[in-house]
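Continuing the series of single-chain predictions for the mutant panel. This is the parent chain; the variants come on the following pages.
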Amino acid sequence: MLKDFPGDILSALTSGGDSRLDIGGGFGLNKYLCPALPDPGIVCASSCTASPIEQSSFDAAAAFFNTFSGAVSVGSRSLLLHEQARRIEDYLVRYFMAEGLAEAILCPSGTDAVLTAVRLRAAERGGAPMTAILPSASETGTGVPLAAAGRLFDGPRQGQPVTQAPIGTLEVALRGPDGAPLPDDEVDAAYESAVSAAPGRAVVYLTHGTKTGLIAPRNPPAGAEVIVDACQGRIDPARVAAYLRLGWPVVVTGSKFFGGPAFSGAVLLPVARRIDRNAPGPGTVLRWIAAVEAMQRFAGAASEAAGFLDRRVAAIGHAIMANPLLVPIAGLSSTGPHWAERPSIVTFGVRDAGRLLSVKELKPIHERLAGGGVLLGQPVSLGVFGGLRVALGARDVVQGTVAGVDHLLGAIRTLRPDPAARLAAAAE
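Parent structure:
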């Protein structure tokens, strides 16, 4: 209820999400180790997971919150919220070159946006059984497999179905046992086999930007129903428009690459599927205001992005190679001139006593780096071992450098296994 909206900007920014946004009281950190307030002292290389809010984005959200909270009635607050949401949706449609192709539906998070797209798909076909075919869970958002199955993905009712249609899931491996990406044609063939074997209607999740930057499948099986997961935001707007012309819903976020605060999701829905929907809550709108401010700044610097990413990724790669305890893990290969066709996520493993550390063993290292002011992407599973990620984002392009780049590269060159990692291994 709007009459019960949070009374301060920090509470409002983290409202209407789920447990991942909870902070440890006061000015604590959320699950992504991001503070609630801007902190220019953090070296942020975590745009594949989440980024702390920037000051200018925070100021934009706070300005609307002051107007919103000063409104004299619930009705006037509702009107302000509705008008602001429509402006954000119109901006997303323009940014992604989707005018006349799609409408935008704001959601509390990217995972919520996936669930929204699933519910719409299920409603279109009544209660017919479905099978969601998506990359292995390690390459998608944590809650995406549950959302793709039409189930709640967080909270006490996690796992509860929210669609009448029964939805199963099939996962397709994108990497081999050594962590290297499988060939595109092999992955495409695996998706085609999964579609053939799937009971009920098969819905393929074309993930345009996994946790490690991969794109799969490159060529979805002919005639397959498709939902595009572009939540990383590492995608050419013209590519989004091309997907929409095929009738494929596209899920995006304003966080990840764009650097807005975590939990700003949206579905770009082809216009033929126009529906009535509920208005987004204050928290969703505030986070999207911050994200749009970041997107607008990036739009002015996007022409410089490809060259910047190439230079910075090369420097990060050199720092990794300079440390004998680190092992680079291949990701996206450059495929074209647009910045979104260049790698912007660098993944590496950490070697200890002749073996590569697991995700569990990498977590203390990730937390130790964060405690020292260097925020990397959360550890991800790469098969039998785990990887850490250095991710570049829009704020880096806008600034023309990674703030604290020397600190970041130095941390990579001198990174060592954490004693806590050895204890974790011994306990397994």
